[in-house]
Amino acid sequence: MYATGLAVNDALVAALMLGAFLLAGRPAGRGALVGLAAAVKFSPAVLLLVLGRGGGRRAAAVAALACAGAFAFPFVGHVPDGGLREIWDATLGFQMTRTSAFSPWGQHAALHPLQLVAEALALAVLAAVALLPGRGDLTRLAAMAAAALIAVQLPAIHWYYPYVVWFVPFALVALLTPRTSRRASTSPPSAMPTSTTTAMTVSGEPRSPKLPPSAV
């Protein structure tokens, strides 16, 4: 409601990313929603580093292809006369060279060295979420998603405060999930049990399903 009240589209971005998180066990679904979010604002594409890995190489490839297809779909039929060059100049090319008062880096040129440090830290965080083992639960997945989104926002030359709605839902899931729920959670998408498989503990040992009282 906060973002919608400001007449910005950041609530749509957040909704698409949350949808991708909820579809973490479906490679095509999560990839497509990340792609649509990236078509609205480019930065959410970093979620593919977090959500695109689960399920093995085949699932990762399906997620990446779905992301690319969903990202390109909104542009079909809307390519300007200048072609891809005009699209670049009006989007990423403009963002890379713009000036803005909506960040410390834009207000004070003397802070440029600190901006470079923030960029290096952002790259380190993105490398970590992309390369670290995917073991854990959905709580850890949410924490990694929040970290990736915060990392790309910190060094941005233009930061508008409604952008907080991108990462706050993931941060809340990571911070407020009770510890007992975390222990009971299953592994991430690559090892999420279905109704037809035996549930596994976080350590990887089989866990016998609990029978209802009537069946004991």
Blueprint (SSEs and pairs):
Blueprint: H1 2-5, H2 10-22, H3 27-40, H4 47-51, H5 56-72, H6 83-90, H7 92-97, H8 104-107, H9 112-131, H10 138-153, H11 164-176, H12 179-184
Helix pairs in contact: 2-3, 2-11, 3-5, 9-10, 10-11
In short:
With 216 residues, the chain is mostly helical. Helix content is 58%, strand content 0%. The termini are far apart.
What does this structure look like?
The longest helix has 20 residues. The chain is mainly α and 216 residues long. The chain has one domain. α2 packs parallel to α11, α3 packs parallel to α5 and α10 runs antiparallel to α11. It is globular and about 45 Å long. The C terminus is likely disordered.
Sheet-strand content, in percent, reads under 5%
Number of domains: 1
For the secondary structure, the number of strands is 0
Helix content: 55-70%
Low-confidence stretches: 186-216
Mean pLDDT: 78
- Report how far apart the termini are: 49 Å
Radius of gyration: 20 Å
What is the H/E string? HHHHHHHHHHHH
Number of helices: 12
Q: Tell the overall outline.
A: globular
What characterizes the major β-sheet?
Answer: none
Based on secondary structure, the structural category is mainly alpha
Which features would summarize this protein structure in a list?
58% helix; 0% strand; 216 residues; 12 helices; disordered C terminus; mainly alpha
